[in-house]
Amino acid sequence: MQTQGCPMLYEMKNKIIKFPKTMINQLSNAQKLAMEMEAEKNMYQEHIEDIMKGPDWDRLPKMDGRALEMLALFGDVMVFTPEVSSRIISKLATQIKTSEPFDPLEDYLKWVEN
Q: How far apart are CA 89 and CA 93, in angstroms?
């Protein structure tokens, strides 16, 4: 199938479609996996949205491995409010900054210079 001249054919080829009357046991393994991943993405999206809306969002512990993995895999298609999006960016930047290794000698020299 040649898709160069028609971008819609290319887009349609990459979508997994479950027809309403198709039984779950008639789906391929790839379709089942895609549906499971979509459900998990939605669950994490709702969870992240809820916790980041709270007044103590900046005092929450670091994001866990699976939440980070979901953001890495699906962050471009997850939908958050602008406020929550900026809080996620702030939280992740803080998490990265605090996980950077530091040199105690370098800190000591800065302290001595002041």
A: 6
